[in-house]
Amino acid sequence: MSENLGGHEKKLLDVDLDFQKLAECPVCLGTVDISPTQCKNGHVVCNICGNNLKLCPMCGDEFTLANHTLTNQLLDSLPKLCPNTNQGCTVISLTKGHEQYCEFRQTECKFIDCIWEGSVKDVFNHFVRAHRESLPKSYLSHTLKSYYVNFSKTIDFYDFSPIVFKNIVFWKVCYRNSTTKCIIHKFYYFPTRKPTHEYYFIVSFNGGGMEFTSTSIAVTDASGDVDVLGNGEAGVLIPDSALDKILNGKKQLPFSIKMVEIEMDLEIFKH
User: How far is residue 173 CA from its own chain's centroid?
Assistant: First the structure.
């Protein structure tokens, strides 16, 4: 990784690697956290490893219960390498937060038969290269028209599929509860930097002179567990009598999605 850096950046990285080596837990080889477990001779191990040890692995002496203020201050001020350093990230941070949007953080393709894993910055290129035929025909526009297949009123329905908008891959989750008759949508994506825009998805079902609409705001993978419906979901209740007028004879449920991009007012977050 360091061969791709300039001279000044490489020196900073080498210095930080030296510091990281000094703060390395001798058991798990990770960087020790603040308030580590420390023995009477000054050797430290991380708290997780310390909970499983009775004696210091370096000298065999007992651990102390004292709060080592200087050690904690040094560890707290230590520049942090991004957790994705081995994947190619060269960022050295003095504050937390970078890894939340690091473009090198790892993800996987959600298509059932695809085994691709890689950095979030490569997701779009992966889709264009490997799954172009699976992308909606109108993925370059602001409006998508498509349909759900094998849709039944009497059993629960679940669909997981991608949408590309502004060169960003969004995963669309649709779920219908056959008991409550509610169709729920959620959209999420993996930003490669701190977001400056919000993305709204207006889902509409039309038929028999009626229209049912719900609006969802896309959430990021930093918002929590993206594999379950939660934050950012929006639902619409469509009675079976109305659903009969929207479904076609092939058990297909037509829908349209209007995608809207709105710039955030970043001044709000500064106060």
Answer: 15
Task: Summarize pLDDT for 189-235 with one digit per residue, the tens.
Answer: 888 888 899 999 999 998 878 899 999 999 887 544 444 444 567 88
In the numeric block, the tokens 């949508």 are attached to 185
Question: Do the Cβ atoms of 4 and 46 come closer than 8 Å?
Answer: no
- Residue 259 corresponds to which tokens in the numbers above? 């995608």
User: Burial level of 43, CB count in 10 A (0-12/13-18/19+)?
Assistant: middle
Please report the beta strands in the chain, taking only residues with DSSP state E, as ranges in sequence order: 37-38, 44-45, 80-81, 92-93, 106-108, 117-119, 143-148, 157-165, 168-176, 182-189, 197-207, 210-217, 219-220, 234-237, 253-263
CB of 108 closer than 8 Å to CB of 32: no
Q: pLDDT tens for residues 111-136?
A: 878 999 999 999 888 988 888 877 76
- DSSP bridge pairs for 190: none
pLDDT at 227: 46
φ/ψ of residue 228, rounded to 5: -125, 150
- The residue type found at 231 is N
Taking the whole predicted model, whether its pTM rises above 0.85 is answered as no
